[in-house]
Design goal:
Order of helices and strands: EEEEEEEEEEHEHEHE
CATH class of the largest domain: Alpha Beta
Number of strands: 13
CATH architecture of the largest domain: Alpha-Beta Barrel
Distance between the termini: 54 Å
């Protein structure tokens, strides 16, 4: 356990001076006035730096010179590690790696890679964002029309079975059947 001190704390609601952020087991345990900080806690001065919550990017196809969805060779734990390091440099502490409309095989690979990454690096990525494949073909944007399609039971079952690593799915209501 240690405390970050000598910084300006931005909570999202207040700007606090003369406060400490207490860290325990890699997580923020509490925020308290310096006067209330127990004397036995190690203090780490941030020398006047700003202490603030990190940004969260909910749709990140790539950064740091890599793309998560260029090819099967790009959908790897290593790609996600590069993306995380690039994010941290700009204050983004968590992200949703985003796989655009692709083949079933690449989507399944993305899910496997996300699971492996989360086991290796908990508390960084917040899960996988599947951008498609169930989009409106008229409003597909840059998505490959060969992969824009209606849902099929096998893929839906696979995604449901892996919902613990899939945080977000972008879909068009027009792509769904009335059933």
């Amino acid at each position: 356990m240690y405390a970050l001190t000598q910084g300006r704390v931005y909570t999202g609601h207040e700007i606090l001076d003369d406060h400490a952020v207490v860290i325990a087991n890699g997580f923020i345990e509490r925020l308290c006035p310096l006067a209330d900080l127990p004397s036995d806690i190690e203090q780490r001065s941030v020398n006047g730096a700003i202490i603030a919550p990190g940004f969260i990017d909910v749709q990140l196809n790539g950064c740091g010179g890599v793309q998560f969805n260029d090819s099967p060779e790009a959908v790897t734990v290593e790609t996600l590690e590069i993306m995380q390091k690039a994010n941290e440099r700009s204050g983004c502490t968590s992200f949703l790696p985003t796989l655009i409309t692709s083949s079933d095989d690449l989507m399944k690979q993305g899910v496997r890679v996300m699971r492996e990454y989360l086991q290796k690096h908990p508390n960084q990525a917040l899960g996988l964002h599947l951008e498609g494949p169930w989009l409106n073909i008229v409003k597909k944007g840059t998505h490959n029309p060969d992969y824009v399609r209606k849902p099929d039971a096998a893929l839906v079952d696979f995604l449901c079975d892996n919902a613990d690593v899939i945080t977000k799915v972008t879909l068009a209501l027009s792509a769904l059947s009335q059933k």
